[in-house]
Structure formats: C-alpha cells, structure tokens
Amino acid sequence: MKKHKPQFTKPFKNDDQAVRAKKHLGQHFLTDENIAEKIADTLSYDGYDKVLEIGPGMGVLTKYLLKKDVEVHVIEIDTESVEYLQNNYLHLRGRIHEKDFLKHDLQQIFKDEQVAIIGNFPYNISTQIVFKVLEYRDQIPEFSGMFQKEVAKRICEKEGSKAYGILSVLVQAFYDAEYLFTVPPSVFNPPPKVDSGVLRLKRKENFSLPCNEKLLFRVVKTAFNQRRKTLRNSLKSLNLPDNLREDAIFGSRPEQLSFQQFIELTQKIEPYAVSDK
Questions:
Q1: What are the pLDDT digits (tens) for 203-229?
Q2: Rounded distance between C-alpha atoms, residue 50 and residue 3, angstroms
C-alpha cells in the first residue's frame, strides 16, 4: 500500500461567521475538537490509503484526518464551505470535490480503488448515504461517522428490537456494525434538538451473498413496510404459492429474523421470483 506523509494545515478557527450553517442542507457544525479527533480515530486506516469525508463544513474533522497516513479527499455541496476549505486547507487543493455525494459516481474520483468513508452526516440525508455506501460496498471497506442517535442505533440494532428494521438487515448483511458513542447537542453550532451517535461499519471480507441481491432488498423492504404482520401476510404482494407460505419461517414477524434468516428466506422465495433474476 502506498504511504503518504502526514499532511498538516492551518489550525481550525471556531469562527461562527466563517460559514453560515444552512438549514436546508441540514448543517450542524461540530465545535468540539476532542470529539472531532475521536471520530477521526474510529477508522482503522488499514488496507486502504484513501479516505473521503462527506460534508466537511469548516473542516474540524478534516484537520485530524489530514494527520493520518492516508490521502484525504472531501466532497461538499455547499459552495461557501468549499471556498472556506480552499482558503484554509491548502493541502486539500485538487481533492476538494464540489459535488453531491448522493448523485456522484464514486468511480469518477477513485476508479476501482478502495476508499473509506467518514463524516458528520446531515440528518436529512443520512439514510440515503448509507444506501449509497451499500451500492458501492465493493469499494468501501470501512465507514464511520455521526448520525442522529436514533438512526445510528437502528443501523446497529439486532433482531428482536422495535428499532430493528430495513437498514439494520441490509447493512448487517454486508458489514459488521458497531455503535461507538453518543454526542450531545451542545457541541454543535447550531445545536440539533436530539443526541447524535457515532458508528463504525467494517465490510465482511471474502463474503458472497448467496441469494439474489435485488430480491433480498425487495423482501426486506416489503416485510418491514407492514412490520406488525407476519411474513405470511406482509409478503402477499410477492404472489408466493400457498405451500411455500406454509413454511414455518412465514409465521414470524420481520423484526424476529436476523439478517442471516432474511437471506435464507430470500433463498426460499427466489425460485418463484423469476422477474428478479
């Protein structure tokens, strides 16, 4: 793996006027240096030499990433933040991407290279970011960052919990998910109305999904759309034969099944779901 010298930059200035937090972008700028450094330390920096930070804002987390032995890139949709980073983080020149992460093809920046993703994610698009990571999972061995606490907990939750849902199953099918720590509203400007939570995802290596991926996503989403019903009822729209629906697994509710059991369920359904192959 190619080594990079630690990259240093100008100190972060906690200047409320430098970049205005924009409500429509869901911006809440982290102001606590200790937490920023702690988040930067959540990545292992092992097995890859590139990191992409989503939504760096004024760079409080970026500063600590630049001290790591990796090549740091940032992607930011806010033109005011981009200008601030260009003026204050000179070592990022050429690696500040003024784009929408959700709409941008990751391979245009990194081709087929491995890259870790990190960030203090806007609450209003955080789940969409996770689905985008799943889409590019072959390129993303590690992912960590800050979410609304409720969402972070949900992603890492195990079966049997009311919080367990679509994100829990689909993320855990491909990544080992770990909830790390909680962050209070007081360390943000402006402060959000709820606690935040930091999580880490590590890709399961040498893992091959033993069922049709599109069908797995469809089964999970359909099941949880009527989570109070048994799978026998919630999956009626798949038009499965009666003899299959008599299988014991169809008597369960979706939150009772682990991600492994959802894979097994999809394998049972797959022979009858020709359109998804």
A1: 999 889 999 999 999 999 999 999 999
A2: 10
* pLDDT (tens digit per residue) in 89-147: 998 989 999 999 999 999 999 999 999 999 999 888 999 999 999 999 999 999 999 99
* Single-letter amino acid code for the residue at 211: C
What is the length of the chain? 277
Q: Count H helices and E strands in the chain, helices first.
A: 11, 9
* Residue 229 token pair: 């019903």
- Asked if 71 and 95 touch (Cβ cutoff 8 Å), the reply is yes
For residue 78, give the 3-state DSSP assignment: coil
Query: Strands 116-120 and 142-148, how do they pair?
Result: parallel
Q: Tens digits of per-residue pLDDT, 144-201?
A: 999 999 999 999 999 999 999 999 999 999 999 999 999 999 998 888 899 999 999 9
The DSSP bridge pattern shows strands 71-75 and 50-54 to be parallel
Task: Determine whether the annotation assigns residue 41 to a binding site.
Answer: no
- Which residues are CB-neighbours of 274 under 8 A, at least 6 positions away? none
| Type of residue found at 155 | I
Q: Flag whether 55 is marked binding.
A: yes
Going along the chain from its start, the domains and CATH numbers come out as 23-203 (3.40.50.150), 213-276 (1.10.8.100)
* Residue 100 is labelled as binding a ligand: yes
Task: Identify the three-state secondary structure at position 245.
Answer: helix
Paired with 200 in beta bridges are 144, 178
Closest CA to 9 of 83, 59, 81, 54: 59
SS3 178: strand
Q: Is 120 annotated as a binding residue?
A: yes
